[in-house]
Amino acid sequence: MIPKNVLLKRVSPLITQIAEAHRKPRWEPVAKSKIYRIPKRPEISEEERLELLRINNNYKTQMRAIRRFYHEEMMRELSSLKSASSEMSQKLEAEEWEKCLHLNEKWNKEVAAEREQRRKIELDTMEEYTLKRIEAKDKEMREKIEKASAEIRLQKELSATFITPENLEAAIDTALANPIDYNFAIDLKGNHFYGRDTPVVNQDRKDNAINANT
């Protein structure tokens, strides 16, 4: 138990009560008892209704007059400014137009000069490219002519050994007198043996025979 003197010395009470207004949460629907309840429209007397209507009409009339006054004042100032600055604005517009014309002519001259310079460079480049192609074609043609001339000279030199109807019999006699056999064989060691009837001598046997004789 809590001592009595402790309870008497306490300034604040042991139990505090917080009072809060009891309200329904926002997400809950209307209560069933209040779904079909229509609030009663406040009743005012005829004199009060007429007075409120008169006050409302006076307010609308005054606000309309104020807006019209400021609108007319603004239009009057604009018209006075336009009439006063019409000549000045025309003069400024004419000066601005002349300035724009001069600036446009200057830009046109600069662009024309750049275009002419670019066209000149393109023509020089095209001319150089064309000359290079012509030189390459000429060089290729000269090489072909030189190659054809060398081939013609070679064929002329070889034509001396050609067999013609005039030297046909002499060529036949020469071939029969000097037969040439182009057949040859190769052994495993890479030795060539020309002719069809050339005897093949075994190198190992040949070496053994030489050693035996010595």
Summarize the structure.
The chain is mostly helical. The protein has helices at 4-9, 46-158, 168-177, 203-213, and strands spanning 184-186, 192-194.
Write up this protein.
- The protein is an all-alpha fold and 214 residues long.
- Among the domains are: 46-83; 99-156.
- It is built from four helices and two strands; from the N terminus they run H-H-H-E-E-H.
- It has helices spanning 4-9, 46-158, 168-177, 203-213, and strands at 184-186, 192-194.
- The chain has a two-stranded antiparallel sheet.
- The radius of gyration is 64 Å and the shape is elongated.
- 0% of the residues are buried.
- Mean pLDDT is 82; it is low at 6-14.
- This is Small ribosomal subunit protein mS26.
- InterPro entries: Ribosomal_mS26.
- Belongs to the mitochondrion-specific ribosomal protein mS26 family.
Task: Return the structural class.
Answer: mainly alpha
Summed up, the helix count is 4
Shape: elongated
Helix proportion of residues, in percent?
A: 55-70%
Order of helices and strands: HHHEEH
Report the β-strand fraction as a percent range: under 5%
Sheet with most strands:
2 strands, antiparallel
Give the strand order of the largest sheet, numbering strands 1, 2, ... along the chain: 1-2
Radius of gyration: 64 Å
**Ends: how far apart?**
144 Å
- The average pLDDT is 82
Task: Please give the oligomerization state of what you see.
Answer: single chain
Number of strands: 2
In the predicted model, the low-confidence regions spanning at least 5 consecutive residues are 6-14
